[in-house]
Specification:
Distance between the termini of chain A: 22 Å
Largest sheet of chain A: none
Order of helices and strands of chain B: HHHHHHHHH
Number of helices of chain B: 9
Shape of chain B: flat
Structural class of chain B: mainly alpha
Order of helices and strands of chain A: HHHHHHHHH
Helix content of chain A: over 70%
Number of domains of chain A: 2
Oligomer: heterodimer
Number of helices of chain A: 9
Strand content of chain A: under 5%
Shape of chain A: globular
Number of domains of chain B: 2
Radius of gyration of chain B: 21 Å
Number of strands of chain A: 0
């Protein structure tokens, strides 16, 4: 499949239809649930979204989740909220985005207000401190667990395994901002695409079109 | 007018807050403690500690708490503090809400354009790296303790880590149940 073929295919189905089966109320309660149990920063939300939105409700595919993580990371604002906005909008448009965002931030809002009003010594409570010593290593494992499934979804093989390894290494060891890793990877993908369309060398083209074909197949069940 | 100031401050933080919750914390500190003197550094540190411990994104938690504290510290009653919370939280979410809607719209329209396909071909493996980096960065003495400082806590933490991985990967236990179970283990063993 050449890039022109892909362009024609694009013209035949200009807009991906909205996925059905997600009532607004269900969007709100699902994200309320996710918000309530997101402990320890935005990435802690990923295993919950994976379990609820991808596996249980099947509102988006695992590949969609990878794509929107890249987008949410490179946008300003709060990572977890950006993801909620995107999923809500994709399923139900603007009202969907409002409902998922509200669901996602309401638990935080209510819990913090309750602490500010009635329980100011929260962080010094010995029971809370002990529970959190158990929760912290669990959160780290919960964030590590989806990495492998995501690697399958991203079709990581011998040719592209250097991308996540190098990216993780730069962020972890050298404190490079994830935004620069995203920018470099996106730019690299774009330039690679330009290269294979300019230079019709059979082997890289076959690889590129295979991947695009796969993403088409993945998006078909959503129709 | 403190509500306008709160709105403006948190709108800017939402607009320029790249790089997740922790990057945002330092921006909030600069504005709220150094610039506006709404609270002392000690109060702010407490707010960050509570924001990390409670459920929800750290950015939302700290915005809610700072909004409340700023109003109460400048002499407002509790109910006006709640209004301060609403203002700060709404303001911090608004910029990314507008931006994400525009980007989602664009993306849904051009998802199958070859150039966009290729960009995502590069992005997907990189996001896997991001996820790996996020878990590596969290493997700190703060989260696990150290064998010399507290061997008991360190090895229990390692056991919780390995147990959670097995529970999720092999037994497909839900993340929420796993979290609740580990909280109970913490209360019983630490």
């Amino acid at each position: 499949m050449t890039p022109t073929d892909i362009k024609q295919a694009t013209l035949q189905q200009p807009l991906p239809p909205k996925t059905g089966g997600a009532a607004g109320g269900s969007l709100f309660t699902t994200f309320f649930h996710i918000g309530l149990f997101t402990i320890g920063g935005g990435y802690a939300m990923i295993p919950l979204i994976e379990a609820k939105v991808v596996d249980e409700k099947q509102w988006i595919t695992r590949e969609d989740l990878l794509d929107l993580m890249a987008v949410a990371q490179s946008c300003p604002g709060i990572f977890a909220v950006n993801i909620a906005i995107f999923i809500g909008y994709k399923l139900r448009g603007l009202p969907g985005a409002l409902l998922s965002t509200l669901g996602c931030i309401l638990p935080s809002f209510l819990i913090i207000l309750a602490i500010a009003l009635f329980f100011r010594q929260f962080q010094d409570n010995p029971w809370v401190a002990r529970a959190f010593r158990g929760i912290r290593p669990c959160v780290v494992a919960l964030i590590a667990a989806p990495t492998f499934k995501m690697a399958q979804t991203a079709k990581i093989g011998w040719t592209n395994v250097w991308i996540p390894v190098l990216g993780a290494f730069l962020i972890w060891m050298f404190g490079v901002s994830p935004i620069w890793v995203i920018v470099a990877a996106g730019l690299g993908g774009y330039l690679y695409g330009r290269l294979i369309s300019l230079n019709p060398d059979p082997s890289p083209e076959a690889k590129g079109s295979n991947n695009t074909q796969d993403s088409f197949q993945d998006s078909k069940p959503q129709q | 007018m403190i509500y306008l100031q709160l709105f403006y401050t948190f709108f800017l933080i939402g607009l320029f807050g790249f790089g997740g919750g922790y990057a945002m914390i330092s921006m909030i500190q600069g504005e709220v403690v150094t610039n506006h003197h709404w609270m002392s550094m000690g109060e702010f540190t407490d707010i960050v500690a509570v924001s990390q411990m409670t459920p929800g994104p750290i950015g939302i938690n700290s915005a809610t708490y700072v909004g409340y504290t700023a109003v109460v510290n400048t002499g407002g009653p509790h109910w006006m503090g709640i209004l301060g919370s609403v203002t700060a939280t709404f303001a911090v979410v608004l910029p990314s809400f507008i931006l994400m809607i525009i980007i989602s719209k664009f993306l849904m329209q051009y998802k199958h354009h070859p150039a966009v396909e290729h960009v995502f071909l590069g992005l997907r493996p990189a996001v896997v790296g991001l996820l790996a980096a996020a878990s590596l960065l969290l493997m700190t003495p703060e989260n696990f303790s150290t064998p010399s400082e507290s061997p008991w806590q360190f090895w229990i933490s390692v056991a919780i880590f390995v147990g959670t991985l097995i529970a999720c990967q092999v037994y497909k236990l839900s993340p929420i149940r796993t979290l609740l179970f580990c909280a109970l283990v913490g209360i019983l063993l630490f």
